[in-house]
Amino acid sequence: MSIVVEGLSRSFGGVRALDDVSFEVASGEVVALLGVNGAGKTTLTKILSTLLLPGGGSARIMGHDVVGEAKACRSVTGVVFGGDGGLYGRLSGRDNLRFFAMLAGLGRRGLRARVDDALERVGLGAAADRAVQTYSKGMRQRLHLAVGFIASPQVLLLDEPTVGLDVIEAQRLRDTVRDLRTSGLTVLLTSHLLVDVEQLADRVLLLQDGRIAEDLPLASFTGLAGYAALVVVRGRGPHPVPRDATVAVDGDTWELSLRVRRWDASVFAELGQELAGYEVSDLSVREVRLEDAFTKLATA
Ligand SMILES: Nc1ncnc2c1ncn2[C@@H]1O[C@H](COP(=O)(O)OP(=O)(O)OP(=O)(O)O)[C@@H](O)[C@H]1O
Questions:
Q1: Shared fold status for 3-223 and 229-298
Q2: CATH number for the 3-223 domain, one of 3.10.450.330, 3.30.1700.10, 3.40.50.2000, 3.40.50.300?
Q3: CA separation, residue 54 to residues 6, 46, 125 (Å)
Q4: pLDDT tens for residues 89-101?
Q5: Cross-referenced SUPFAM superfamilies, in alphabetical order (predicted)?
């Protein structure tokens, strides 16, 4: 096991941010930590990255205790927090990376090749010698990721890695993380963006009020939404009212959302019958997404 957490708790004054949390992450697994604001995700990530002491219980990274063997934990863990902080704006991307690599204990030997390789992997080869203050948000976040993996960690803690990035940059970052997975890295990922989770995670842990409310493979979690697809039909004039559907009316137009539990040919036949005689302008189908399951669980 790469991460073993047992009975972990942490309070801030009267607030129990983590309450008897236990879970394990196997080597090479990517686990997503989900939860609404204030559920305890950051507290957990900070304890695992040895930035915060637990109040009770224990956590081990590659067998090292986060309290008693913090240094050993840091040597096997890469940490990437979302946001802008932590980099030196006046230094180039290359010098930033070199600095953090040396902080992580890498010697000078072979460092240049390693830094070059990391910069290439995150697509910053061409911008390596520019000052980081001239980088876009996405470029900075990619540099953060390079800092996180330059020392070849066995475990990577990613806290909101795509926060504030546009869709293209966010996808680029996800692609880089996916590449890293192939080298057997264990990843604990926190994100509000369920698309990150859908694309990267094998398993989902749902934190609710500091406790683990669900621990499920990704596919089962998506299944919790209780339906397989959503059919959205738009039209004009009078509207139908089929079962399992909600209708939003705006003046003369309407939008009907129909939850489909299981796909088969009869769905289309029934839909055709339901819509016969009404004025339909548009019809679209989307598969159930993680956020549907998340919304359902988090508000249960
Ligand atoms: N330093 C602190 N002092 C006081 N309370 C804190 C502190 N850090 C966290 N808390 C509280 O602990 C609880 C868990 O916070 P935490 O930041 O871990 O949640 P989160 O799931 O990461 O939330 P978010 O998604 O908003 O980042 C919250 O009620 C929060 O207000």
A1: no
A2: 3.40.50.300
A3: 11, 9, 40
A4: 999 999 999 998 8
A5: P-loop containing nucleoside triphosphate hydrolases (SSF52540)
